[in-house]
Amino acid sequence: MKTTFFWFRRDLRLSDNTALFHALSENQQVIPLFIFDSNIIEELPKNDARISFIYKQLQSINEELKKIRSSMLVLKGSPKEVWQKIISEYEVKNIYFNKDYEPYAIKRDTEISTLAKNNNIAVFSYKDQVIFEENDVLKDDETPYTIYTPYKNKWLKAFSSTLCEAKKSENHLTNLAKTQFSFPSITSLNFNLSSIKVKPYSLANLESYEAERNFPAIDSTSYLSPHLRFGNISTREVINNTKHQSEIFLNELIWREFFMQILFHFPHVVNQNFKVKYDQINWRNNEKEFVLWCEGKTGYPIVDAGMRQLNETGYMHNRVRMVVASFLCKHLLVDWRWGEAYFAKKLLDYDLSANNGNWQWAAGTGCDAAPYFRVFNPYEQVKKFDPKLKYISRWVKDLHELSYPSPMVEHKFARERAIATYKKGLEGV
Ligand SMILES: Cc1cc2nc3c(=O)[nH]c(=O)nc-3n(C[C@H](O)[C@H](O)[C@H](O)COP(=O)(O)OP(=O)(O)OC[C@H]3O[C@@H](n4cnc5c(N)ncnc54)[C@H](O)[C@@H]3O)c2cc1C
Predict the structure, then answer these.
(1) Atom of ligand 1 nearest to the CA of 359
(2) pLDDT > 90: what percent of the chain?
(3) 199: CA distance to ligand 1 center in Å?
């Protein structure tokens, strides 16, 4: 019997899932598949918290499927080899998946689509993780926006509630194939479960979001990022539940889509400055200083608190992400790519487009970036956003001990050095 496959990637849910909806409403005998991509996971430590998060989410989806006498096929390998094996074992009629806009994913999907075509298999891909994808919101001359505010205005103008209507995949689950695939143990995948716990998200009570979101000691942000990253909840559902609560919150979700379309249209940003005129900055790149930053031992309590929060929990508050990123690029003159790579290793919500976009923003090299002469003053940031040192004392337990380091570089000196170095780099072009 001919089989249709639905391929889970960054959309780990059964409900309101566009490609799953189409796969199930247009076919019977649909097999849901997940591939632990060896090209990605072999680079990761054995207890990587993202792998644990994905694993647990797959496990819970599989439990749901078992209730309706179905199951998920979970495999490990390079996607091309896995698909070749599947095609040799099954009579595959169709493959359905949701689109992914990262350069690696585009290359992977093109490769799999070619393989499918060569085997007379139809491929169907859908927009799902965003409201507007790469070419949906363009300037009047059909070129991509590189400045956030006009992008946001056009986004809002084009937005309507119908775009957020749920794709009720959950109503068609009876068209899943009745299977009993065995679910792999985490150790058979060559991983261990991480001790890092992912905080559940909350979309209620966003009324105070605007007033409180910059205060890292207050739990007023949604903690949605890893859940959105892996698609445990749909973007449509998030927007439907929040759009009447907070305009500012919606703006943040638009930043997410803004950076996704930047990455799509300007893939050079993965390794290079968005603005080439910043290519001549003479980064100091002192490795010892970089290690102190990574370990949260800079002697700047707000920076150290942020880095320790990241190292212990895989999360850091957005305001503090901005402070630590600015500190690394400007106070220490370390290339933003080093900081970006460290965040990529540690963040539960690591997402290439948002991470790269925000790092380039902090470094001043990005599309709509902070000007180079804007150097966050870490002491002023504490006065404004953590005046009672609540956040700092939560993460820097040794703050009042003699062993706590003194500042690794003096603020005024570092600020002036940063501005002079950037200026010289820019003039050198
Ligand atoms: C240097 C740096 C690196 C970052 N790296 C990432 C990353 O790898 N992945 C990531 O999801 N976010 C990243 N961010 C953005 C932001 O810090 C996180 O999205 C946010 O802290 C997640 O917490 P939350 O879900 O409680 O956010 P909320 O304030 O509740 O925001 C809701 C959602 O909006 C989106 N969002 C919010 N702020 C931004 C932003 N500045 N850019 C893009 N999307 C945003 C996220 O999807 C977030 O979950 C980075 C920011 C900085 C300054």
Answers:
(1) 1
(2) 96
(3) 15
Predicted local confidence at residue 58, as pLDDT: 98
Average pLDDT, rounded, for the chain: 97
CA of 260: how far to CAs of 18, 83, 265, 286, 378, in Å?
A: 19, 27, 9, 31, 29
- Cα of 318 from ligand 1 centre, angstroms: 6
CA–centroid distance, 224 to ligand 1, in Å, is: 9
Q: Give yes or no for residue 429 having a pLDDT over 70.
A: no
37: left (phi over 0), alpha (psi -120 to 50) or beta: beta
**Using 50, 70 and 90 to split pLDDT, how confident is the model at 370?**
confident
DSSP 335-362: -HHHHHHHHHHH-TT--HHHHHHHHHHH
User: What angle in degrees, to the nearest 10, is found between the helix axes of 318-326 and 378-385?
Assistant: 170
Residue 277 DSSP class: G
Q: Measure Cα distances from 24 to 4, 67, 176, 234, 235 in Å.
A: 9, 17, 7, 18, 20
* C-alpha radius of gyration, the chain, whole number: 23
Cβ contact 15:168 at 8 Å: yes
User: Where are the alpha helices (H) located in 222-351, listed in sequence order?
Assistant: 225-229, 235-242, 247-265, 287-295, 301-313, 318-326, 336-346
CA 320 to chain CA centroid, nearest Å: 17
Give pTM, 2 decimals: 0.97
d(CA 272, CA 261): 16
Residues with CB under 6 A from ligand 1: 213, 221-225, 228-229, 252-253, 255-256, 259, 318, 321-322, 325, 343, 347, 349-351, 354-355, 358-359, 362
Tell me the C-alpha to C-alpha distance, in Å, between residue 427 and each of 268, 413, 422: 23, 21, 9
Q: Which residue has the tokens 């002697």?
A: 299
Contacts of 99 (CB under 8 A, 6+ apart): 109, 125, 126, 127, 128, 129, 133
Residue 369: per-residue pLDDT: 83
End-to-end Cα spacing for the chain: 64
All structural domains of the chain, each given as residue ranges with its CATH number in brackets, are: 1-128 (3.40.50.620), 130-163+204-265 (1.25.40.80), 276-427 (1.10.579.10)
Burial 404-429 (b: 16+ CB within 10 A, else e): eeeebbebeebbebbeebbeebbeee
**Closest ligand 1 atom, residue 316 Cα:** 21
